[in-house]
């Protein structure tokens, strides 16, 4: 956590590799184009030195050391990748399909969020070394968790079948209510424009780039 915190001083000076094994590079993706085009602090300037002095104050750094390396954003990132697992981006889903998949992701996440770390037969914690894409060859160590459980799916199916045997109508009604909440496709809110007019406006807007050609 200390290394991560200290990396911030580099980051604001447009330096994203930190040469520390604990936090070798920034956790953001490589900065390109507009993302790179920021008002970075110039190394060695008064502003950079003052910020460094405030950021690296011993008392503050001592507190930062006590922060959890996992629980600030790690579980949020894990939840996001779980959503991709349940609702992959390469497939288009209906509104209800997407809604159900998000609910499944949340159920799976809540059911498995307090998994114990996996241990060897000798009781040692098992670790994995990962090479995240954003780390450009850098590595991180993560403890391995026990295998996830899908018991919530069985519970869900059981309560569905119970609900159905109790009253199929109620179930059908709930399903109809759910279907009626689906919003209209996004394209219905698009304003149509004649192609000639759109191209004309586009060219007028970009004419300053064309002068002098
Ligand atoms: Zn950075």
Automatic annotation (TrEMBL):
This is Uncharacterized protein LOC117548011. It comes from Gymnodraco acuticeps. The lineage of its organism: Eukaryota, Metazoa, Chordata, Craniata, Vertebrata. The gene is LOC117548011.
